[in-house]
Amino acid sequence: MLTSTKHVSFATGLHCSNCHREYSLFAINTYAVCCNQPLVIEYDHSHAFSKETLPFRQNNIWRYMEMLPVINSKNIVSLGEGMTPVFSLNKLGNRYGFPGLLMKDESANPTGSFKARGLSVAISKAKELNIKQCIIPTAGNAGGALAAYCAKAGIKCTVVMPTHTPMIFKQECEMYGARLILIDGLINDCAKKVMEINRDNDYFDLSTLKEPYRLEGKKTMGYEIAEQLQWNLPDVIIYPAGGGTGLIGIWKAFLEMISMGWITGPLPRMIAVQSSKCAPILYALKDPHNWKNAFTPAPTIANGLAVPYPFGMNMMLGVLKESGGTAITVSEEQILDGMKEVAKNEGLLISPEGAATWKAFLHLARTKVISSSEKVLLLNTGTGYKYLENCNEKIVIN
Ligand SMILES: Cc1ncc(COP(=O)(O)O)c(C=O)c1O
Ligand SMILES: [Zn+2]
Q1: SS3 for the chain, per residue?
Q2: Which protein residue's CA is at the shortest distance from atom 7 of ligand 1?
Q3: Taking the CB of residue 100, how many other CB atoms lie within 10 A of it?
Q4: Does residue 2 register a pLDDT over 60?
Q5: Residue 396 Cα, ligand 2 centroid: separation in angstroms?
Q6: Which atom of ligand 1 is nearest to the CA of 244?
Q7: How far is the CA of 241 from the centre of ligand 1 (A)?
Q8: Distance in Å, CA 350 to ligand 1 centroid
Q9: Percent above pLDDT 70 for the chain
Q10: What is the pLDDT of residues 307-363, one digit of tens each?
C-alpha cells in the first residue's frame, strides 16, 4: 500500500534500441523515429537500492519502483499486479525426468494475464503525462487489461480486436467501459485500424513496443523470477512470444540486475514458443531480412501468439542470440492437449499460450536440447478460463 507520494524513479533517459539516439524522458514517447525501432528506458544503476529491502515492500510490481519509469508515486495506477506464484510442476516434471520443473503462473494477475503488468506501468505513465484517451490493437488480453487500468485512472479507452476472439475478451472491455471495435483479421489488421482512427494523434497508441512503458512493466517478471528463486536463475526460460515484450523485458531485467550487482551470470537460455499457424520468429531466424514475405499467417487457439509482424522483431532476435536460446513451434492439437494435460495433472487451467510452453519443453527435453540436470521455468502468461470457447471441439477457427 502506498502511503505517501514521492519521486521514486531512477530513470535517466530513453534511447533508440538500434542507434542509441537519445529521446526526452519527460515527453510523451512513442517509438524511435530515427530507425523505426522501439525506444528503451535507461536507469541509473549506480544508485541501486538494496535488494535486502524487498521483503519489506508491497507485494506487487511497484516493489521495484526505482527501476520503473513513473517519476512520482502519486501517479501509480495499480490493481495489485505481479508477485504471481511460481509452482513446481511435480507430477508432470517427475514423469518426464525433470523433478525441478517450474511454472510462473501469470493467471493470478488482474484481468487474468501478464498484460496487467505492462498496462499498469503504461497507464500510470499516461496519467503522469496527462493523457486523456488511449487506444490499442489487441489479440485479446491486452485490450481487457488496458480497459481495466483506464477505468481505474479515469482515462478514455478504445480497444480494437479481431472478431474471432472469444466472447469473454470482448465482454470484459465493455464491462470496463471501453469502446470496442471488432475487425475481421489479425492484430496487424487491428493495428491498421488504430492508425486510421489515430490519424491526428488524438490518442495515446499502446501498440506493442510502439511506446516504451509497457516493456518496463513486463520486465518485472524477470525481477520476480530472480527474487522468488532466491537470486539463482533457471538455466532455461520458455516463453510464448507474440509481440515479444515479455521476452525482451525479462532479459532487460536480468541485464539491469547484473549492473546493480543483484545477480551474476550465467543467464538463462531464452526460448520463444510460437504456434505453427503463425511463427514469424522462426522465419526471421532463418532470414532476418526477408521473413515478412516467407509465410502466410493464420489464427490460432492461442490468440496471443497470432502476431505476424512484430515491431520488436530485431530486439527479440537479439535476446535469443545473446542468451544462446532459440525459437520453436507447436501445433494447435498439441496446444489443446497441453492445456488438458496440465489441468488434469497439476490443477492449473492455463492459457493456450502457456500450454504451448509445456509442449515446447517436452520436445526440447526429448531432443536433448535441454538436459535433465537443468532447471527449467515455463511461463504461463494467462488464465485458460477466458479461452474455453476455443477449446470446444465443435468450434473450428479458420
Ligand atoms: C496469454 C498471452 N500469452 C502470450 C502473449 C504474447 O505476449 P507478447 O506480445 O508480449 O509476446 C499474449 C499476447 O496477447 C497473451 O495474451
Ligand atoms: Zn535510431
Answers
A1: CCCCCCECCCEEEEEECCCCCEECCCCCCCCECCCCECEEEEECHHHCCCHHHHHHCCCCHHHHHHHCCCCEHHHCCCCCCCCCCEEECHHHHHHCCCCCCEEEEHHHCHHHECHHHHHHHHHHHHHHCCCCEEEEECCCHHHHHHHHHHHHHCCEEEEEEECCCCHHHHHHHHHCCCEEEEECCCHHHHHHHHHHHCCCCCCEECCCCCCCHHHHHHCHHHHHHHHHCCCCCCCEEEEECCCCHHHHHHHHHHHHHHHCCCCCCCCCEEEEEEECCECHHHHHHHCCCCHHHCCCCCCCCCHHHCCCCCCCHHHHHHHHHHHCCEEEEECHHHHHHHHHHHHHHHCCCECHHHHHHHHHHHHHHHCCCCCCCCCEEEEECEECHHHHHHHCCCCCCC
A2: 242
A3: 17
A4: no
A5: 43
A6: 11
A7: 6
A8: 13
A9: 97
A10: 999 999 999 999 999 999 999 999 999 999 999 999 999 999 999 999 999 999 999
More confident of the two residues 25 and 58: 58
For residue 112, give the ligand nearest its CA. 1
pLDDT interval class at 396 (50, 70, 90): very low
List all residues 6 or more positions away from 82 whose beta carbon is below 8 Å from its beta carbon.
60, 61, 62, 63, 109, 116, 117, 220, 224
pLDDT above 50: residue 1: no
Grid cell of 369 as nine digits: 536440447
| Mean pLDDT in residue range 197-225 | 98
What count of Cα atoms within 13 Å lies in the side-chain half-sphere of residue 193?
20
